[in-house]
Known about the structure:
Blueprint (H helix, E strand, L loop, with lengths): L3 E7 L2 E7 L5 H8 L18 E4 L2 E4 L12 E3 L13 H9 L8 H13 L6 H7 L11 H20 L2
Parallel strand pairs: 1-5
Antiparallel strand pairs: 1-2, 3-4, 3-5
Helix pairs in contact: 2-5, 3-5
Amino acid sequence: MNKRLVSLSVNGHRHDVWITPSDLLLDVLHDEIGLSDVRYGCGEGVCGTCTVEFDGEPVSACLMFAVQAEGHEVTTLRGLLDEDGALHPLQQQFLVHGGSQCGFCTPGMVLTAHSMARRGGRPSREEIRYELVGNLCRCTGYTKILDAIEDYVEQVSAEKAEQP
Ligand code: FES
Ligand code: FES
């Protein structure tokens, strides 16, 4: 199949890549752009390990063609780091609570939770659990992940309340 040059905006940087129309976003991010924080799990939209933010909303990169990302902003886990490479406060909460063991599911978990928190409000634990229904973890039993996200949501909510 003929390749064409597309320009993708990922983590605030432009990447010009030669791809075929059938190339998946997951493969292009991981193999062509070299983002190892985008993970292949099931390849069928079931496990959530390949989650990236697409214009701020979580999507499964294994279910999208890379050409669909032209003209949109894609954010992977490392896009949450600040310019000095420091962890995002949500990642800090995962560290504090031990919400990551092997770490394979962590990028998807963090990005799904990050998108939810950006929408605002103060989701309950049950609402957080529901939001993560498409993100599977084989290690942690979810409790520590939920603890981490719950504390982050509280932190964001408290910061907003302090703003004039
Ligand atoms: S690899 Fe995409 S949802 Fe599992
Ligand atoms: S920490 Fe290992 S799969 Fe979630």
